[in-house]
Amino acid sequence: MSEAASYSVRDGVAVITLNNPPVNGLGSVLRPGIMQGIKNADTDAAVKALVIIGSAKAFSGGADIREFNTPKMNVPPSLPEINDAQDQCSKPMIAAIGGFALGGGLELALGCHYRVALPKSQLGLPEVKLGLLPGSGGTQRLPRVVGAAQAVQMMTTGNPVPAEKALGLGLVDEIVQGDLLEGAISFARKLLEQKKGPRRIRDQSVKIDGDPKAFFDKARAEVGKASRGFPAPLEIVACVEAAATKPFDEGRREERERFKFLVESNESMALRHMFFAERQTTKIPDVPEDTPTREIRRAAVIGAGTMGGGIAMNFANAGIPVSLMDVTDEAVRKGFEKIRGNYAATVSKGRLKQEEMDKRIALIKTTTRLEDARDADIVIEAVFERMDVKQDMFRKLDAIAKPGAILATNTSTLDVNAIAAVTKRPQDVIGTHFFSPANVMRLLEVVRGAKTGKDVLATTMKLGKTIKKVPVVSGVCDGFIGNRMVEKYGQQSLFLIDEGCTPQQVDAAAYQWGMAMGPLAMGDMAGLDIGWEIRKRRYLERPNFIYSKVGDRVCELGRYGQKTGKGWYRYELPNRTPIPDPEVEEIINKYRAENNIKTRSISEEEMVERLIYALVNEAAYILEEGIALRASDVDMVYLTGYGFPAWRGGPMFYADTVGLDKVLAAIERFQKGYRGDAWKPAPLLVRLARQGGKFNG
Ligand code: NAD
C-alpha cells in the first residue's frame, strides 16, 4: 500500500486512511492505494465491513489540482474505476467524513454504501464553479440519494451543505459526536448486527415530487434564466433527468459525454483561466519573488469618507491596527458609524460573530491629528480627488511619517508620479486603487510609479494578499487599467443611445450577455456626476475628445443616479431597482433631434460587440504601453472589479475565444458607422489578428 492511503484492520473492520495533505486530493499517489485497500478488504474473509476515512479537516477536496494537465491525471485507476470496485464490493463500505467532502471527494463518498460525518463537515459538488459537472457518477448518484430537486439545487449552485442538513437529506446516515473513526467503526458494527450488507446507490431510484416532465421543464426554465447562457447548469439538469429516466449505466455514459463537452467548452476554459490568472498577478518580471519586503504592523488611513472607511475595515479584518483620520470630529464620527453599521449588518446576517466584530472595531482608532500616522508602516491617503489637495497631503506626510513607511494614494485618476514628486522619498510612494465598496470588492490596482521601490511594490502586493484582495499591477496613466477601459465602454453605451437604443435595451443586452449589470445602471450606482466631472475636464484638456453629450444632459437636470433618486432611471428609494423614466426618453429624443441623428434599430449582438470590443481595443493599447503586465491581469481587473462574467474569462480571454481576426473585422466595420472616428484599432490587436495570435498566449 502507498503511504498516501494506509490500510489496517480492527476487529473485522478494514480501515483505509487517506493521507495526502493538504486536502486529500485524489491524485496519482492516492488512487492506487484506495483501490488496493478495497480489494484487500473484499478478499480477506476476516474482514466484514470497511471504512474509508480522511483527516478531521478533510475527507477529500476532490481532484488534485497540482496534477491538472499533467500525465499523472491518467495514472490508473481512475475515480470511476474505484467507484465500480465500490459497487462490486460484497461488504458494507462506510465513508467517514471529517471536514469537507467536495467534488471527486464526495463522489468517492457516494461510491460508499453508507456515510457518517462530523457535525462541522461540509458536503458538496462544486464542479459548476469551474464550468464543469461532476463527471464520476456524481450527477447519477446524488439524485438517487437526495431526490431530483435537491440534487439540481446542490449541483447547479455548487454550494456545499453542512452535515446537519445532509443528515436531513439522507446524504449522511449518522452524525458522529466525538472521535470519527470510533463512531464509524461502531456504525459498521451496528450494520453487521442488523445483518445489513452493501446498499448500492446505483440500485436506487430518483425521487421526484409530481410529474417528472413538468419538474424538468420547470427546472430547465429556472436554471436557464439564472445562468444566462452559461452552459454547465443546464447540462447538469440534463444529467439529473437522465438519472431519473434512464438505467444507471446509460445515465453514466450520458454524464461522460456531457462532461467531455463541458471540459472543452470556452466557458470552462475561461473559469480555469481565471483560476490560474489569479495566481499570476503577483509575478512581476523585474521584481523577483525573493525581493525583501517591509513589515506592515500598523496602518493609517487619511480621509474617513466612502473609501477611507472601507479601506480601514480591510486592515481590521486582517488583524492589523489602523488609525483613521479626517479633518473634523464630525467627519470622523460619521466614518466610524458607517464602519460600525457595516459590521453590525454582517453580524445580523449571521456571517460574523459579535465578539469578532468587537475585536475588529477595537483595532480601528479614529483621530483628527495627522501626527497620529507617525508610527504607521503604511499610510493610505483617501482624501478629495484634487491634485493640490493630494500634493499638500503628501508634503505633510513626508514630514510626519517614519522613515521606511509606505505612502500610498487611493487616487482614481491622478498622476502618482506628480504626487510622489512633492516628497523627498518618491521610492516609498505607490498607488493603491481600491474599488467601491472597498471592504467588499476584491480588486486592488497597485499603481507603480516611475520611482516606486521594488521592495515597496513587493510589500504592497503581499499586503494586498494579506487583506484578501486580488492585487494587480498597473503603470501610471489616466484611469489606470480598469477605468481607462471603462471610459471607452461608457462612450459606446452613449453612442448606442444616440443611435436609437433605450438605456434599458443597452443594459438588458449587457446583462443578458452576462455582465452583473448594464453600463447605464452601473453609472447610476456609481454616481453619474463622477463621469461628468471627468468629461468636463476632458473637454478642456483634449479638444478632440469624442463623447456623446447625451449623458451631460441627464446630469444637467441634477439626475446623478441612485443617490439623487434619478439618473438614467428613476428609483423609489430605498429600493434600488431601476425604473424606466419617460423624462429620460424625452431628454434623449430632444438630443437626437438637436443633433440631427438618424436612428435605426440595433441588434443585441451589435450592442454587446460594441461595448465589449471597446474594452478589448483599449486594453490592447494598455498592454502595448506596458501599463498592464499581461493580458490575464487585464482579465482579472474586469473579473474582480467590474462585474465581468467569470465564465467568459475576462475581456481578453473572451476576445481570444471569438478570434482576434473577427474582433478586428467588427471594429473595422464600426469605423464606418456612427461616430466611427471613436474607433482606432490598437496596433497590437492588428498584429495579433494578422498572425492568428492570442492575447493570452
Ligand atoms: P469622500 O468625499 O467620500 O471622502 C473624502 C474624505 O476625505 C472626506 O471625509 C473629507 O473630509 C476627507 N478629507 C478631505 N481633505 C482632507 C484632509 N486634508 N485631511 C484629512 N481628510 C481630508 O471621497 P471618496 O469617494 O472616499 O474618495 C476618496 C479618494 O478615493 C478619491 O481620491 C477618489 O478619487 C478615490 N476613489 C473613489 C472611489 C469611489 O467609488 N468613491 C473609488 C476609487 C477611488
In short:
With 697 residues, the chain is α/β, with parallel strands linked by helices. The mean pLDDT is 96.
Your description of this structure?
By secondary structure, the protein is α/β, with parallel strands linked by helices. It folds into 3 domains: 5-263, Alpha-Beta Complex (2-enoyl-CoA Hydratase, Chain A, domain 1); 299-474, Rossmann fold (3-Layer(aba) Sandwich); 482-691, N-(1-d-carboxylethyl)-l-norvaline Dehydrogenase, domain 2 (Orthogonal Bundle), CATH 1.10.1040.50. It contains 28 helices and 18 strands. The strands form 3 sheets. It has an 8-stranded mixed beta sheet, sandwiched between helices. The protein is globular and about 90 Å long. It starts with a strand and ends in a 6-residue tail after the last helix. Residues 302-308, 325-327, 331, 382-385, 389, 393, 410-412, 434-436 line the site of nicotinamide-adenine-dinucleotide. Nicotinamide-adenine-dinucleotide binds at residues 302-308, 325-327, 331, 382-385, 389, 393, 410-412, 434-436.
